[in-house]
């Protein structure tokens, strides 16, 4: 069994009842499909006056003579009806057999489909839930290496392919083979000689079809990867539309998109052509078989007289009914190959190991009492260390600012404190407890984060601010907005805190978005604040409003401020000057100015990057 099929079993196991019922109804569907064809024999016999006259009810003598008993009993009933009620009533009787059989066939088909629909949609829901939980749980570092579009393609397209293809297997192993089996058994009972020809058709067509679909899985994987690339291009284009237009780069992006979509077109055409070939090929092979049956069977009817013309017509109809399930099997086998390729991509993401996880028996810490200490930290994103033997103490209630040029490792400190990344060597402690020993939830509950990019979600102001405290009252939200210097613009909005901020908060200005981010951190009310260049993207007027909001927020709190501008850090208790991942100076603003070192140089240049 394919490894990806095995991984699907736990999802399917939750819906065992629907599988059993689907199989149950499919068995009866296959049986009634065959009986529907067989029920044509008495109808044709009555129509052409070929039925044998039987005036005495036959006696059942065992399963070995079931065919003869069924024919005799039916002929007996038709004979009695014809003689007592006339030809029309007898014909109506045999036609009613067809109608009842057709009804039973279709009602079992409906119930089989009903249960497979419950199974497919339930598994789709469960897989999406698990995949989304995995996407959210994976560390930030995973997404710095992966395309967002590829992850989205796996969530949207690939899971659908898994759903659409794998549940063909139920038809592949139950309904269609049973339909073929019942038909062949019935055909064998009718005429063993003719049925030998059918046994040649099925394996030959199976071999030919499997040869054509040989490299379908490989091409499907390539197509699904390309699908991820083109979704990424769309995502990047929408995210950076101002830059695309501002630099007249539309042609470049259109070309990039066209190249991807054309590669996808070639792969999709190749896959589609092979899929499309399965059905006509199996039908053609079936027609060839039926042509041979017509030639051979006609001799049995006309010369040998071993079967009647009505029975032969039914036999041909039965042989033709094998074509539909044979086509379905060949088509489904192709789709399963596509599904295997999709499953490989889905499960590779689902099985992705999360390297930043809670330890067993992780500590839940609810208070911050003493200090944060970074002790001999080494950290690297790839090969070269971004932080080298970095040691720093952040006492409770103090504001510590990190300054330095771009690439000096300031933002890395914020990523390590919040455990978006883990240190390579050394340790970070809160009140002498290693943060790796704390549960992730309790660590992040102790911290409020305000980033350079004020991230807002396409929902109301109320939803965005209450993110860290879901049960917050409107009064608490308004109080947080006031502290963040944001209520003065929120109260003037048409719906106040119920106003939708738009995609990424684009209905608001940069300064307004940043003040809402601060309000979110204020409402959470954590003892430790991490401000990662919170004012760097703002104009001077907005910066002043945000700076007041930050000062309001930092009162009586421990704050780690990654600084971009001088105004943000002048009042800090300790200013740490960083260069190439190491501390070159630290002290208060006045002390560092007097030293006339690196900090003074940065101040004079007004270059806090």
From TrEMBL:
Presence of the UniProt keyword Repeat in the record: no
Domain ABC transporter: 372-605
Top-rank taxon, per record: Bacteria
Keyword Transport found: yes
Membrane-crossing segments per the record: 20-41, 85-104, 172-190, 196-213, 284-301, 307-323
GO CC field: plasma membrane
Keywords: ATP-binding, Membrane, Nucleotide-binding, Transmembrane, Transmembrane helix, Transport
Any GO molecular function: ABC-type oligopeptide transporter activity
Record Gene3D superfamilies: ABC transporter type 1, transmembrane domain, P-loop containing nucleotide triphosphate hydrolases
Localization, UniProt: Cell membrane
Domain ABC transmembrane type-1, residue spans: 73-338
Membrane topology designation: Multi-pass membrane protein
PANTHER family per record: ATP-BINDING CASSETTE SUB-FAMILY B MEMBER 10, MITOCHONDRIAL, ATP-DEPENDENT PERMEASE MDL1, MITOCHONDRIAL
Protein name per Swiss-Prot or TrEMBL: ABC transporter ATP-binding protein
């Amino acid at each position: 069994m394919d490894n990806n099929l095995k991984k699907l079993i736990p999802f399917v196991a939750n819906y065992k009842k629907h599988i059993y019922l689907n199989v149950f109804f499919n068995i009866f569907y296959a049986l009634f499909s065959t009986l529907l064809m067989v029920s044509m024999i008495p109808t044709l016999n009555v129509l052409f006056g070929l039925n044998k006259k039987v005036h005495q009810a036959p006696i059942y003598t065992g399963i070995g003579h079931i065919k003869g008993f069924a024919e005799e009993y039916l002929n007996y009933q038709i004979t009695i009806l014809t003689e007592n009620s006339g030809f029309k009533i007898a014909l109506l009787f045999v036609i009613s057999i067809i109608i009842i059989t057709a009804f039973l066939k279709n009602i079992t088909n409906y119930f089989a489909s009903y249960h497979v629909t419950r199974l497919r949609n339930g598994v789709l829901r469960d897989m999406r839930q698990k995949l989304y939980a995995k996407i959210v749980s994976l560390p930030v570092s995973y997404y710095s290496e992966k395309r967002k579009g590829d992850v989205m393609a796996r969530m949207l397209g690939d899971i659908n392919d898994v759903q659409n293809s794998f549940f063909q297997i139920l038809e592949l192993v139950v309904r269609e083979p049973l339909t073929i089996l019942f038909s062949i058994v019935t055909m064998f009972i009718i005429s063993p000689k003719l049925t030998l020809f059918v046994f040649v058709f099925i394996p030959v067509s199976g071999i030919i079809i499997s040869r054509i679909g040989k490299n379908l899985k490989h091409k499907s994987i390539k197509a699904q990867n390309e699908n991820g690339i083109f979704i990424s291009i769309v995502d990047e284009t929408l995210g950076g539309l101002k830059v695309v237009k501002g630099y007249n780069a539309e042609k470049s992006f259109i070309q990039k998109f066209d190249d991807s979509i054309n590669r996808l077109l070639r792969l999709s055409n190749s896959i589609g052509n092979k899929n499309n070939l399965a059905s006509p090929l199996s039908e053609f092979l079936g027609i060839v078989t039926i042509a041979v049956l017509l030639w051979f069977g006609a001799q049995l009817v006309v010369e040998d007289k071993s079967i009647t013309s009505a029975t032969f017509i039914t036999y041909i109809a039965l042989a033709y009914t094998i074509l539909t399930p044979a086509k379905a099997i060949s088509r489904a086998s192709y789709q399963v190959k596509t599904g295997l390729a999709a499953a490989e991509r889905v499960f590779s993401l689902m099985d992705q190991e999360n390297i930043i996880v809670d330890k067993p028996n992780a500590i839940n810490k609810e208070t911050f009492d003493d200090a944060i200490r970074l002790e001999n930290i080494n950290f690297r994103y790839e090969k070269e260390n971004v932080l080298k033997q970095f040691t720093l103490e952040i006492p409770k209630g103090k504001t510590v600012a990190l300054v330095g040029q771009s690439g000096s490792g300031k933002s890395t400190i914020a990523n390590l404190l919040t455990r978006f990344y883990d240190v390579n060597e050394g340790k970070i402690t809160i009140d002498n407890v290693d943060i790796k020993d704390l549960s992730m939830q309790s660590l992040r509950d102790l911290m409020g984060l305000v980033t350079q990019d004020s991230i807002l979600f396409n929902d109301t102001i109320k939803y965005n601010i209450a993110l860290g405290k879901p049960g917050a009252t409107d009064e608490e939200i308004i109080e947080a907005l006031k502290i963040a210097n944001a209520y003065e613009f929120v109260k003037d909005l048409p719906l106040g805190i119920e106003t939708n901020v738009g995609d990424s908060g684009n209905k608001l200005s940069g300064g307004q978005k940043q003040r809402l981010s601060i309000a979110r951190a204020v409402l959470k009310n954590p003892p430790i604040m991490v401000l990662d260049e919170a004012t760097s993207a703002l104009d001077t007027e907005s910066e002043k409003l945000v700076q007041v909001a930050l000062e309001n927020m930092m009162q009586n709190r421990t704050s780690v401020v990654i600084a971009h501008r001088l105004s943000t850090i002048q009042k800090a208790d300790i200013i740490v000057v960083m260069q190439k991942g190491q501390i070159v100076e630290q002290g208060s603003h006045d002390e560092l100015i007097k030293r006339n070192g690196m900090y003074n140089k940065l101040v004079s240049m007004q270059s806090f990057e």
